[in-house]
Give the backbone structure.
Amino acid sequence: MIIALSITLFFLIIRFTVTLFNYISNPKLTRVSKRFTDRISILIPARIEAKNILNLLQSIVKQDYHNYEVIIYDDCSNDATYQLCANYASKHPAFKIIKGDELPNGWTGKNFACAQLANQATGKYFLFLDADTTIYNGLINSVVQRVQYYKLALLSIFPDQEMESFGEKTTVPLLHFLLLNLLPLRLVYLSKSSLFAIACGQLMFFDAAIYRKMQWHQLVKNKVVEDTEIMKAIKLDGYNGEVLLANEMVKCRMFDGYFNALNGFSKSALALLNYSITTMLIFVTILFSGPLLVITTLNLSLIFYMLGLIILSRIMVSLQSNQNALQNIVLHPLQMVNFIIIAFLAIQKHLTKTNNWKDRLPNE
């Protein structure tokens, strides 16, 4: 009993310390006033995105950066994605759309789409955006400044998440909570170790010269969680990479509904723990049974100590990710239950090799 309690409290303190480090170090993209004129290739892989993609295209036109090209790759969508983009491109000369090819052997759909986009791009920098994101003024100038100043091969941004349904509110906040609760984000840049490697495929900003040399998406062509794999490769090859929070410059409604959120998060949950099923099972066991064990002691001091660490962590993470702190505190138990569901779905998909991008399994 004492050993189990000690492990639980140690686990809570370590996670709180990581959260506190992230809060103090404030790993947000800094908004800059400087204006850059380098040519940017905005590259958008799209599959079945008719509901989302016009919001992104319109946000690109409205932003305060003007030297860009936009290339959209329609990956065999069975909805109106291609036609909507083609109509939009006909009215905006900087936009064009590519009709996707058959998926070659050994590739996942998104990686092949991104590689084809990069082959068509002419910019000094490549800005890969998921079709369900929306960008705002200041983003492009800010990422250009960051990449130039820190000599980055890749800067990846975790967007602020928009949630509409109750199911999304019990799942989507897990992204930032686990990220900022488990990984000191500043170490992605400061440490040369690939153990501190993570990225967000929703926004990946590359130095194009390095990308053309290394062909990052081809390098990880059969990986479903390609973003983190690319960051690992960048660090292993001696280049600099960094991950930051959006600071209200890019937003995304990642999933529209509870079951889509469970399925989507289960795709990448293991990546946060370096694909270790053993580590995931230990983590889930402590996460779920630890607080219950503390409560069964009926020791009010210990219970309030535990609750204090959890509540303070939720407040810090919510402030960093521009989320409702009170809502996340109230929904914390439901979010933890949903994480357990996500963890077991992730293990199942990993063991059965059924991870995919928009229903496209790797073509073997």
